[in-house]
Design a protein that fits this description.
The chain is built from 13 helices and no strands. Helix 5 packs across helix 8, helix 5 packs antiparallel against helix 10 and helix 10 packs antiparallel against helix 12.
């Protein structure tokens, strides 16, 4: 028995704090499994001899000498007051540094998302409509190839071909639209291949449904059946995949940003992990978790709005 969309949204929103609490606990625990002492790393970065006395003094300053549970409670108390702590390395507020770099990562993820929709939807439709043709085989080959290539290797390949050899695009950095093209394609291509195969199989499955046969018997044009019925029904499972994709793009940007020296959250995260900068890593994971959960909530709501069965149930209620 279906529940109303309003009740569904309310339940999902009420579960968000518990999901984020679980993410914060796991992040806080796992990051402290790293055997290297942050105080020692910071002293070496400052070119100070990491003696036992110096390490202990810095641990007291950073607060890492306190019991584990107390450290977590102090941190989560600060998070509830929108205080994410201070970076061990830069001594600046973590939120200030992360939110300064967040727009660059969102820009890259959004550009990749636009490329995914712009390429995968038409290619998936063409591949389904021309099933088993040469066009279908070519599209399927390149989609499988794009999924199989590791992202870091794809990034270096794009740099070598289009920057070093042809000189079409800059090799690194951020500033113009040309700087955005290669990182966005490197981030989007593996997902484009996945979406093309998913859209192809979904449309082929919908074309076998009885309502399509009835529509043909009623004399409806194939284009009308495709646009008004098949694509609408195929979009329902696609929305769930879109929500997970947005979160994976933000997480996958870590590798791409490192390859193209893109000044976003991913590159900053790598530096923070190497420096054992706990507050930065904890805040990063929490921000990505919030974005990921909200994106999935929005796609679940959209899924229900597109599903005619659920919409009819809401109207009856």
């Amino acid at each position: 028995m279906y529940e109303s969309t309003w009740m569904f949204c309310l339940k999902r929103i009420l579960t968000l704090p518990f999901v984020l609490l679980g993410v914060s606990i796991l992040t806080f625990i796992f990051i402290r499994f790293v055997p290297v002492e942050p105080a020692e790393v910071i002293l070496r970065l400052a070119r100070v001899a990491p003696t036992e006395e110096a390490i202990q003094a810095l641990r007291e300053e950073l607060g890492t000498d306190k019991p584990f549970v107390l450290q977590y409670l102090l941190w989560i108390q600060g998070v509830l007051h929108l205080d994410f702590g201070t970076s061990f390395v830069s001594k600046l507020p973590v939120a200030q540094e992360l939110f300064a770099k967040l727009p660059a990562t969102i820009e890259l993820a959004f550009a990749a998302f636009v490329l995914i929709l712009g390429f995968s939807i038409p290619l998936g439709i063409i591949s389904a409509l021309y099933k088993h043709s040469i066009i279908d085989k070519i599209i399927s080959f390149f989609s499988i190839l794009s999924v199989s290539i590791p992202t870091f290797w794809l990034g270096f390949l794009l740099l070598y071909l289009f920057s070093l050899k042809l000189g079409f695009f800059p090799t690194n950095g951020k500033g113009t639209l040309a700087h955005l093209v290669l990182p966005a394609f490197a981030l989007a291509l593996p997902t484009i291949g996945l979406f093309v195969q998913f859209i192809r199989s979904t449309i082929l499955e919908e074309l076998q449904q009885q309502y399509v046969q009835y529509a043909h018997l009623r004399g409806l044009k194939s284009s009308v059946i495709l646009l008004r019925h098949v694509l609408r029904n195929a979009a329902i499972p696609l929305t769930s995949l879109l929500g997970m994709t947005l979160g994976s793009l933000l997480g996958g940007a870590v590798i791409v940003e490192q390859v193209f020296s893109w000044p976003g959250l991913g590159r900053y995260l790598i530096e923070s992990i190497m420096n054992r900068d706990y507050p930065v890593v904890q805040c990063y994971v929490l921000i990505i978790a919030v974005i990921y959960v909200l994106a999935n909530l929005c796609t679940d709501i959209l899924h229900r709005l597109l599903d005619p069965h659920l919409m009819m149930k809401d109207r009856r209620d």
